[in-house]
Amino acid sequence: MTSLAFSLFSAEMTLQWTAVASFLYVEIGVLVILCLPFISAQRWQSIFKWSIWNRLSQFWNKGFLTMIIILIVLFLDALREVRKYSSTDQSKDAKLHPNMFDHMHMKLFRAQRNLYISGFSLFLWLVMRRVVTLISQLATAVGTSAALQTQAESANKAAKKYMEDNELLKQALTDAKGEGGKIQDPEENKLLKKEVQRLEEQLKSSTDALKKSKSDLDTMKKQTEGLTKEYDRLLQEHQELQNQLDSGDKKDN
């Protein structure tokens, strides 16, 4: 009888639970690929922009919600089976019949296995969508940060150029003055003053733009750091869940 029980333990899963288990392993594989450190977020974003994903995007939300509903239903069904075969009444009845006791333990084992499979599948399905969203946000933040950095550098170069031109104009005004501090050519002096005023206004606007760019750059850096921390946290949770799943498979074996 004991050999019969072990043979029942090793029997294949039903079609629906085989599909859920396969889906779970696919989720783990996709998450491992998404977490590979040598593939940058910009590369993933370029992959997400392929035309095939644009065609599937209109069905993505419906498919995502449908899969959540299916996994929740399977999880609740497995939970019901676990509670059913863990009840004390059936345990008392099973003790009276040794064969029935082994059969009850087999049913309980399968229910617990199905509970773990459906629960981890549901959790990793949510984690996978969150990881994809974080990767897209991180790529956007990095691209915006690079653009702001380029803009700040160009504004800094323009400000330096205007300052150098301002110094040259001041030097020209000093050289244009005659003895006693009088200006030899009033018209030329007026033109120089207007030019200096114009350059000072441009310098001021460039300085304001540079300050604004630096402020935006600091803000984007903080957002990027937050996204990176969240990405690392999800990666750590995924590793812990994978370790738990591996340990659960070892126990089942």
From TrEMBL:
Name the segments for region: Disordered: 203-231
So which domain of life are we looking at? Eukaryota
InterPro entries hit by this protein: BAP29/BAP31, BAP29/BAP31_N, Bap31/Bap29_C
Subcellular location as annotated? Endoplasmic reticulum membrane
Keyword annotations from UniProtKB, A to Z: Coiled coil, Endoplasmic reticulum, ER-Golgi transport, Membrane, Protein transport, Transmembrane, Transmembrane helix, Transport
Where mainly located? endoplasmic reticulum
Pfam families in the record, alphabetically? Bap31 (PF05529), Bap31_Bap29_C (PF18035)
UniProt membrane topology term: Multi-pass membrane protein
Q: Boundaries of each BAP29/BAP31 transmembrane domain copy? A: 13-144
The family classification in the record reads: Belongs to the BCAP29/BCAP31 family.
Can you say what this protein is called? Endoplasmic reticulum transmembrane protein
| Source species | Cirrhinus molitorella (mud carp)
Taxonomic path: Eukaryota, Metazoa, Chordata, Craniata, Vertebrata
